[in-house]
Amino acid sequence: MRVFSDSKDHHYFTEYIDIMTDKLFKILIITGIILFTPLMTAFSFDRTSISIHIAVSELEKAEAPQFIDNHILFTYFKRDDYIRRVAIAFDLDGYKQIFPFMKNENNVFFLVKAIPEKTRILNYRLIVDGVWISDPENSYSVYTPENIKISQLKIPENYMDTASTPIIEDNGNVKFVFRDKTNKNVYLSGNFNNWDPFMLKLKEDERDPGTYEISLRMSPGKHFYTFISDGVTVRDPNNPHKVTDSRGNPISYIEIN
Which of 32, 67, 164, 195 is the 20 to 30 Å CA partner of 132? Predict the structure, then answer.
């Protein structure tokens, strides 16, 4: 066994440690890319939508289709069956295009799809390992003239209009709208309230659970803001005016004349 005794040996030893540390760092980076890239590419939505990321990561079983940030979250899961592939097709194009599902860390298959514009009824079918079926998590289904069972999803009225928010109301107030799961604590934070995270709380619409709103009188000029849903900061997914602040955080803005 060699003992490092002089400065030259110490130099070689230090250089060796640096090389091994660099290799380990590169291995960790590559491993992270391999693990997370497939999951990230599964999302066909604005990746600033933290609400969707959270909903997908928390899935432990299949659920009925969910409406989140102008998107629909479809899921499929069978605990006792080994399923290799799950996909979905819609009647909008005659079931010609197949959209493959991905799996989260709990082995729940999922797909996030933007809500089609001006669509009131969405008919679809799942394809599980090559077999076409209706969605077992969707309690509403219909039969085609060929006696084929398909799943049907009614798009809520508030999602049918794809107009951007915030909305300048007739009385001059500005209405901010945020959509998420029900029973959330949602706040509005912006340069108009010194970015206070608890001052302006949105109220959940009793007629439309999961929709949170607040109306404010705002002065002319450019106003920057974000939503905070249960402590998580979310840029307005329905506002096309998007920038980043000085720290690189995504924020939204509205300009009032």
Answer: 67
Q: Sign of dihedral through CA atoms 146, 151, 155, 156?
A: positive
Give the mean pLDDT of 232-238.
88
Q: CA-to-CA distance for 255 and 257, rounded, in angstroms?
A: 7
Annotation: CATH topology of 163-256? Immunoglobulin-like (2.60.40)
- CA 78 to CA 82: how far, in whole Å? 8
**Residue (of 254, 56, 72, 68) closest to 179 by Cα position:** 68
Same fold, 50-159 and 163-256: yes
Cβ burial of 82 (10 Å; 0-12, 13-18, 19+) is exposed
Which architecture characterizes domain 50-159 according to CATH?
A: Sandwich (2.60)
What is the model's pLDDT at position 14? 54
Confidence of residue 242 (pLDDT cuts 50, 70, 90): confident
pTM of the predicted model as reported, rounded to 2 decimal places: 0.50
d(CA 189, CA 224): 9
Per-domain residue ranges for the chain?
Answer: 50-159, 163-256
**Closest Cα partner for 111 from 78, 79, 75?**
75
Q: What is the pLDDT of residue 21?
A: 57
Q: pLDDT tens-digit profile of 52-111? A: 888 899 999 999 999 887 789 999 998 877 899 999 999 988 899 999 999 999 999 999
